[in-house]
Design brief:
The protein has 236 residues and is α/β, with parallel strands linked by helices. It has seven helices and eleven strands. The protein has one domain: Rossmann fold. The protein has a seven-stranded mixed β-sheet. A four-stranded antiparallel β-sheet has the order 1-2-3-4, with no helix packed on it. It starts with a strand and ends with a strand.
C-alpha cells in the first residue's frame, strides 16, 4: 500500500498546473487516483458513480443500434468506459483539450485506461470541445447519437469562462446541430438541479430531465449527490 501519495505526473498546461497522484484512502482502505488543477481538486476515483451514470442515463434515452457517441472531457475515463460497455455503441470519440490527460491513458496510468485504449471503437482526440460544437458540423457528418459532457463543475461554475456560452439557448442550439435525428445530449453537474438552466434546455430540446444521482461518501460518512441532465433533440 502507498503510505501517503505518489505523484504519477505533473505538467504545466494551458489551464494551469495539472497533477495526477495516487494515494491510499483510509476510509476505504484502497488506492485512489486524484487530479488537481493547481490547489483545486478536479476529480477522484473515489467518486465515479455519477460519471458512469452520465453514460448510462444518456444512452438509455437513445433508441436504436450502431450508436456514435461523443464524450466531451476524458478525465479518469469512467464515463467513456461506461459508454463502451453498452453493446450498441459502434464508435466512441472522446475529446479533451489537454494532451496530458490523453497521455495518461495512452500510458495506462489509470484503472480505466487499458479497457479504454485497447477497444477499437475508441478515438481519443486532443481538441477544444466547446470550439468544436460552436462551429457548424462538418459537411455530410451524420451527427452523433449522443453527446455526453463532463468538463465544467456545473452550468454556472465553469473551469474556463469562455465555456459559459454553451449553457444558454444559443449555445445549446449550436450543440444540437451536431446530434443526429433523435440524438441525446447529457451533462454532468456538481450542483443541484438548476431551474434557469432547465429553462434553457427546454427552449432547445424535448424531454429535458434533471436526474439527481446520490452516492455514498466514505470520507464524510454521509451521502453526496450530483446532477445529470438528459435532453433529446427535437429533430426526429
Amino acid at each position: 500500500m502507498i503510505t501517503r501519495f505518489e505523484e504519477l505526473d505533473w505538467q504545466q498546461t494551458p489551464i494551469g498546473e495539472l497533477t495526477l497522484r495516487r494515494r491510499t484512502e483510509p476510509a476505504v482502505d484502497a488506492e485512489i487516483y486524484e487530479v488537481k488543477l493547481g490547489d483545486e481538486f478536479l476529480m477522484s476515483s473515489l467518486f465515479t458513480v455519477a460519471e458512469e451514470e452520465l453514460a448510462h442515463l444518456g444512452l438509455a434515452a437513445v433508441t436504436g443500434d450502431e450508436l456514435s457517441v461523443l464524450v466531451g472531457g476524458l478525465g479518469l475515463g469512467y464515463t467513456a468506459v461506461a459508454a463502451l460497455r453498452d453493446p450498441r455503441v459502434r464508435a466512441l470519440t472522446v475529446i479533451d483539450r489537454l494532451a496530458t490527460v490523453i497521455s495518461w491513458h495512452e500510458r495506462r496510468l489509470l484503472p480505466a485506461s487499458a479497457e479504454l485504449v485497447v477497444d477499437p471503437r475508441t478515438s481519443l482526440i486532443e481538441d477544444d470541445f466547446f470550439a468544436l460544437v460552436r462551429a457548424a458540423p462538418a459537411e455530410n457528418h451524420p451527427g452523433y447519437s449522443a453527446i455526453l459532457l463532463d468538463v465544467d463543475h456545473s452550468p454556472r461554475h465553469q473551469l474556463d469562462p469562455t465555456h459559459a456560452d454553451l449553457y444558454d439557448a444559443n449555445g445549446l442550439r449550436a450543440l444540437d446541430g451536431h446530434l443526429a435525428a433523435g440524438g441525446v445530449f447529457a451533462l454532468w453537474s456538481d450542483d443541484p438541479p438548476d431551474a434557469a438552466f432547465m429553462s434553457e434546455l427546454n427552449a432547445v430540446f424535448d424531454d429535458a430531465t434533471a436526474h439527481v444521482v446520490d452516492f455514498d461518501n466514505p470520507v464524510t460518512g454521509g451521502t453526496s449527490s450530483n446532477t445529470i441532465y438528459v435532453a433529446r433533440t427535437r429533430r426526429a
